[in-house]
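Q: Start with the shorter request: fold the first protein.
A: Done. Sequence, then structure:
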Amino acid sequence: MKRSIKIAVAAAIALSSTSAFATNGDHLIGMGAKARGMGGIGIGMSHGAESALVNPALITSVNGTEVSFGGTIFMPDVRTDLGTGEGSYDSAANLSVIPEVAIAQKASDNFYWGIGMFGVAGMGTDYRDANTAGMAYNNFHMVTNLQLMQFAVPLAYKSNGFSLGVAPVLQYGSLDINYDGSSTKGVAQDFGFGYNVGAAYEMSGLTVGASYKSAIDMSYTGQISAAMADFTGMMGFPNPGIADNLEQPAEIGIGASYKMGGSTFAVDYKQIKWSDAKGYKEFGWNDQNVIILGYQYTQDNWALRAGYNHAASPIKDQMMTNPLANTFNLLGFPATVENHYTVGGSLAFNKMTSVDLAYMYAPEVSDTYSSALPDGMGGFYMGNVTTKHSQQGVTAQLNFNF
């Protein structure tokens, strides 16, 4: 057991230096390969150790000790046209590796505990190599990168089919906003604390669950405030005085699953409170209502999964009331994809070892917002910025049961 924990921690540390680019806003649609294969299902259906950061009450499905570790290869495709007649630019931030490590153990007939370490959120674009020489308007070779990783210790109690769980959460985050003439001075980092709580009830093949994730306030010194000062200064706009806080929002959800023979049908609903989160609300992000449908078929030593995840984009065109926010949202943080289609499967080699795989596809969306850009002559250009965005992701996970 101690050796498994050391391996899991080493894997998380090794992978945590890579960036993530997520889907429901800046959140991954699901934690772990089983959940992602079902569109992100996890509030009302247990996935063993994987459930640590989704609904901690559901780690109670573990019969002994379960260790899961793996990761997601994430492949976003982002293109932006600033509407200046210069064509579109492709973001080079098109490949990320996101870590996933979890451990859960049944300590007694009623008590369970675990450890979860996941890359949970992030986003960014990379236009550093865009050919803008000689152009009056350009994308300033903008590079943005937000990375978030959470470490949690879920504790759960189960009696007569009813489970309660709580997970204190330590979050690490880093943010870099860089561009031509930037005064942001490199990557800023911070740690924040929060908690997840969950409940579940199982009866005759039916499982219902509920979860709440607290907001986690983060501050990235000299990033957001400096970027806003730079851009407003370049264009002669008044400085909006936005601080460096970027708070991960609170989230509330409910879910249910029903197992009938080898088939399991599941549905989750959750709301992500972007409009109350520091930083996001200043950039006009709206709350997201996320609907997830999932299906699993199991037989003998294998399983097949499919899922669908939908959430309207949290960013909207703020017209000319806030063209700078529009420019930053689409050029630097285009959290615009809405529909996600997933498939997955599992294969158990023996009672101890199994592997999970999942694939996610988010079709391309195109958004055009009013924008403000420096014109290179001490003024600014008012026009439209268009961003096209699609995503693919492949998740692999290895599980050990003792």
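Q: Next, the second protein, separately.
A: Sequence, then structure:
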Amino acid sequence: MSSSASPTPPSTGPLLETRHLGRLDPGGVVELLKPTDFVLTPGAQIAITGASGSGKSVFLRALALLDAPATGQMLWHGKLISSEMIPHYRTCVSYLAQRPALVEGSVLDNLQFPYTLKSLRQRRFNLPKATELLAQAGKEPAFLQKNAQDLSGGESQIVALVRTLQLEPQVMLFDEPTSALDPQSASAVEHLVRHWFDADTSRAYIWVSHDPAQARRMSTRHLTMDKGVLQLEPQR
């Protein structure tokens, strides 16, 4: 956690809010994300579907502050996110891509890697917690010693997910995390996400998917994206 950031306050209001958040293409001409107002509240399980190129990933990456917005503002627990808040924000709001990026070495090396980052040096790797998360995905303790380069696509995604969930983020942004996985691996990822979510009612997530059945299964609210416009459907 950044020493310049104060701890995240209790979740008595929206976790994350955007006001007219927009993104342009690298040339600064095409609107990839139309100005968007959006509120993410504690306990939210939101799925977003839409055609390829509709702006789903653009929106998620903007929320994760991986790509700078062209317009608008973002608030975390009601406060505008300043540049000095970003390291702390990224420990609270995590993005999981479709294809995981693992470091060389073992599964254990990958799980320990985040704690070498400046923003997390005050925290310590918790082996029992990591082992328990792996168990939720059906992996035995011996899996920790497996070489990351020998992992299947499904195993790699499970490692990437456990590496993130062990840090106990308050918000997860899932960018089609199972689209390249076999059904068994996809089911393990879904189970692990539900386990993380159910452990704390103040958490929330957004799940981007091309699979309507999965979107229904993993959400209580379904939104759609079309040509950079987020359609805010009524809650059910």
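Q: Describe the second briefly.
A: The domain at 16-230 is CATH 3.40.50.300 (Rossmann fold). The first helix runs from residue 56 to 63.
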